[in-house]
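Homework help thread (please don't just give me the answer)

Our assignment gives two proteins as sequence + structure token strings and asks us to describe the second one. The first is just a warm-up. Here they are:
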Amino acid sequence: MRTLEWIYLIFNVVMLVWLIVCRNKPRKMVWGGLIISVVLLLVHGVIEGMRWPMIPAYLLTLVPLIVLIAKRSKSADVRKFGRVRIIVTSLLVLVYAAVTMGLPLLFPVFSFDKPTGPYGIGTVSYDWTDESREELLTSTAEDKRELMVQIWYPTDKDTKGTTATYVNDPKVYATAFNDVLTLPKLLFSSLSQVKTHAIQEASLSDAEAKYPVILFSHGLHGYENQNTFQVEQLVSQGYIVVGINHTYSSLVSVFPDGRVAQFESEGKEGFDQLQFNYMDKLNETWVKDAQFVLDQVEKLSANDANGRFNGHMDLDNIGMFGHSFGGATTVQMLMDDPRVKAGMNMDGVLFGEKRIPAEGVGKPFFMMSADTTVAGTIVMSDDEIAAMGTTRPEAEKYYEEVYARYEPVTAGGNYWMELSDTKHLSFSDLYLVSPILEWSQGVDARKAHQIVNDTTIDFFNHYLKGQPLQLDSEVGEHTSYSLKKG
């Protein structure tokens, strides 16, 4: 919950209890409570914005007014409460107070942890079209491959400006979460009020001559800023991060002119969508997306019309990380594009045209996995497997190929971390949306994020900035994770 929400809510709940418990309430104090409540409501509404989970709390502002009206027309009968009536009233007050406190906690305006690095964060978005590629997922033959790209970059710590919202069209995203991931829109009703630590179109910090560049590729059904928890921490440490929205494979794409590109399943659902022949082919498009974006980044570094990035991108030190299908794309880029020097795959099955050779990727590589993902069919019930549209023998055969592709992950001195008590989406922002999601999945989102962030910064600091590496001292079994090194 936000600060003013807490202050307003606690004041009103305390005032409600006082009005119920205290028999002789001075009119001046009741009027004072009403005035303070109204002022807090107005300040909260103007600064933070009102939202539906706070409606029960908003109604509490009327309670002093009701009491004042009742005191004017009170009679002896009204003043004489029986014991039963007092008990019933007290219980109702407790229930109402629980609802008043509970709704904002269950449906919060979530926030991101404060960045720990010495830099502030700026952000700018681009609409880039690859004129050399036709868009294969639209009915119009002339369409070219068009991508939304968001770049985050270091600014001076005291930079002021307009704070960037989490997503650029919250209503469209809330609908997409419902349509694509079948999550209730209610969970995403406060997306418009979620703020990041980034300042729109701020000036790039000149504290360093150049900053290493890291590409980010989301998961299938994901979006370019789905890992804001991770991106902000990286940028605060002195990196330029470039997030790609893979059109028609993302949750949704929203273009500057208002056009919306929805997720396109190509008629593939459930287990059918996960087949290697389909996913390997689809991944070719994602690899070409990443290569095109890198080409555009090079052009931006050489000739930025706004002057922001001119000569400030360290193109000799480019990294990449991705979640799920974006993690698979990262591995393909490591093997396919010499510009990418180091990469991280967060819980991504190794889809793609190329297999990791027995001797390894040949570049610094870090694999992260959720323990439930690595467990495969062992943790899947028969009902869950049936819901995917397959049988247990078929699923087990599928995982044989998954594990075979994982076999050389650590070869050549690379790393594989398995996080305990995590799920596939623990490597994204999603579980921050509501504790309901965390409780239903049995995960601790911020705990997982802390491990991910510490590891990500350590890995890229070493391989892109030449700083000492802490990972080697962490190899082995730990309470929250295990770490292997090849």
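The one we have to describe:
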Amino acid sequence: MDRVLHPVSKALAAAGDPSQLLPAREQMAFTLGFHIILVPFGVALTALMLIAHYRGLRHDDSDALRLARRWSKVAAVLVAVGAITGTVLSFELGILWPGLMGDYGAAFGMPFAVEGLFFFLEAIFVSIYLYGWNRLPPWAHFWTGVPVVLASLGGAAAVIAANSWMNQPGGITLRDGHVTAVRPLRVFFNGAFWYETVHMLLAAYIVAGFTVAGVYAAGMLKGRRDRHHRLGFLIGFLVAAAAIPVQIFVGDTVAREVFKEEPAKFAAIELLPATGDHVPENLGGFLVDGKVRYGLPVPDMASILAGFTPSTEIRGLEAIPPEVRPTDRSVTIVHLAFDVMVGTTFLMLGLVLWFAWLWWRGRTMPTNRWFLRGAALSGLVAVVCLESGWVVTEVGRQPWTVVGLLLTRQAVTTQGNLWPLFGATVVLYAAVGTGAVLVLRAMARRWRTAGDETVYVPYGPEQPYATSGTAGEER
């Protein structure tokens, strides 16, 4: 590591929290928790859209092209909402956390500049792709969607670079507590970048895939068993199904890296008060007055998962200096969130295995109603898993904003009453979220009743290109 730790005095670390700390953390948690739900659809729904589009053109499949066209419109709505909520988050960083941006903005802000460039590219090509239906040659239109997928991946990676830098800061030189030199590539590709980025991108594909599959499973439960619904289900479900086993492997790797590089977070995950070996894996439970209550221990499992042997020693919370030790409450939150994340992941894996068994037996799309009920709920389960993972990442870093460099109480603003700002933000997000839901429901109703994707406008071409039927020819 090439970072120089900023010394945090015991007097400063032990000082009382500013009155602005609680509302600032609550607002950041609310806005990030809202925004993170939208990220998978900007990152992965566009990829599902292109999969359907490719199939439609390659196999002259009108159902696949209809899916691609509809999903492109849904993605456009959600990308727009994500842009609004993401913009609020960027303002919050400066308003709520001036200590972070003032002291470390030269490093922390660099990945966000990169993300801005990717977002502009994504917005431009989303517009071209949407306008291109019936207006561009079929394959030329398809290729305008590829930059959308690539730009969304790059933008997500840039944001993860900023977040992972907070967990493992590097690429900076400090003198008297001030940044004097920044090495951009070391900041961006920090020690946690690769595994956190892969972990998040897989999560995005899992959430988008299961959510799309869940929509069509719900339709099939209502009797809509046509090929359009079956194909929509299969594209989403198979993408998520392919990502789940890879995600379990990556998640295990991430946990082992956290064990090596972030011992405080790992101790919270394992609900471990004292350092030791032969550490059990506690399922559930709370930390009360430094002691584990109501957990179900699995003997030696935490040590085996951390180092492949029961004799692996794991640092406990007692090894952390008291002035920067996480509270029992935050430790419990991290531990339970980790349990929820792992539990929901294996629920989704179970659904995938159920699908494989039903397909093997019938050699066709499963229509078992209990399976379809589970599939209809899989999107919600995936969102819960995603939110739980972010709780582990963000709360697990406390009381640090930048681990080893900046305490959260040092980063927060000390000006004004933040509760009214938090209330206004909740109202704004509620309005934006309600508007998005109403728009998507209106689109779904129109598709069910009319089924016509073509909307002719004064500035459109007189003889549009074909996008269904003879997909590769010009009409």
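TA reply:
I won't write it for you, but here's a hint about the kind of observation we're looking for: Residues 38 and 324 are 33 Å apart (CA to CA).
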